[in-house]
Amino acid sequence: VSDGESQSPEKAQEIPKRPRRVKTMSGDRSIPRISVGTASEFERILEISKPVVIHGTDVGPCVELWTKEYLTNTVGIDRKVVVHEAQTENMNFQTKNFSYITKAFGTFLDEVYAGGRQYLRSISAEKPTKMPANLAVDFPELKEDFRLPAQLSLVTENMHSSPLRVSGPVTMWLHYDVMANVYCQVRGRKRMVLYPPSDVQYLQLPPGASSSTIDVFQNGPDGPIICIPDTSPHEVLLEPGDILFIPPLWLHTAAPLGEVSIAVNVFFRNLTQGYAPGRDVYGNRDLQAYEKGRNDVVKIARAFDGLPPDMARFYLLRLADELREKAEHD
Ligand code: AKG
Q1: DSSP element (H, E) containing 263
Q2: Is the ipTM here above 0.90?
Q3: What does the CA dihedral 288, 206, 116, 162 come to, rounded to 10 degrees?
Q4: What is the whole-number distance in angstroms between the Cα of residue 324 and the centre of ligand 1?
């Protein structure tokens, strides 16, 4: 029940090998920190579709209020939550080195504030498998504490979901989402590394998956990220009150630094068409054309059944070249 999990079982594929040329270095591009005064300035950011950190806006009293004690008293200790309990400090969706555990909110807070490798990405309290998370509905006690600034009215109007994220010392795996995202840091600090969509070919995503097999933070949450050849990592350290705009399809991974990190992120639709119809609980269901394309690929490959494998390979690669040509030059 988290990002990258809308993959159906048939999407799961063999994990490709790690890149051979891995060396270490730190991210080479930092994400600009800007102030945004009006809704039309934010609209322009959406058009440019590059990540930025919006600072100096008001996300509500949560930034001061959301201490362990406040959350315990306000939400209550008995409320049940489903948390990721990790075996190592780098969660990996492909190797599934974590488990989903249902526990009482009070127990979760005690454990996570004691340094437990746990991560809450809230899900719908009403219909967890059918509806996206909504902070105001799922945690009505916290509703008045968090708000998006007026400049981001486009986000509010097109909101898909607003999960609460509470993270102990564990990193979130590298993945992309299909919805646009404004990630609002509330407490603690979070290191975010983002890769542009054009890097996807170098980031080891099994076919049809939205999560990578690579752990970018192999050198620890504050160490240099691993160098993945031919990619352009963009990096930022979020402080309370910062809002990171994560454009659709930008791959991202996150590491909390120091204390427990609390955030609310709001996924929103920024396309007028193209989303897959039907259920999308996590905001990462691939576009309709891609889902259809994957079915067409199966049909195309099947059309070569019964032919000599070397001839099938020859023509399938010719077709792949045509697709690449379209992607790069159309
Ligand atoms: C997202 O907002 O899509 C994330 O993946 C956030 C990751 C995190 O908070 O650890």
Answers
A1: strand 251-268
A2: yes
A3: -10
A4: 30
Whose tokens are 């990592």? That residue is 233
Report yes or no: 11 and 208 within 8 Å, Cβ to Cβ. yes
Ligand 1 pocket, mutate which of 176, 252, 266 (most atoms under 8 A from CB) = 252
Among residues 266, 263, 264, 267, which one has the least CA distance to residue 284? Answer: 267
Q: Tell me, what's the pLDDT at 28?
A: 54
CA distance 329 to 306: 33
Predicted pLDDT at 29: 86
The dihedral formed by the CA atoms of 40, 44, 49 and 51, expressed in degrees to the nearest 10:
-70
3 state SS of 172: strand
The whole model's pTM is what?
0.90
The residue whose C-alpha atom lies closest to atom 8 belonging to ligand 1 is 254
Instruction: Please give the backbone phi and psi of residue 165, each rounded to the nearest 5 degrees, phi first.
Output: -125, 120
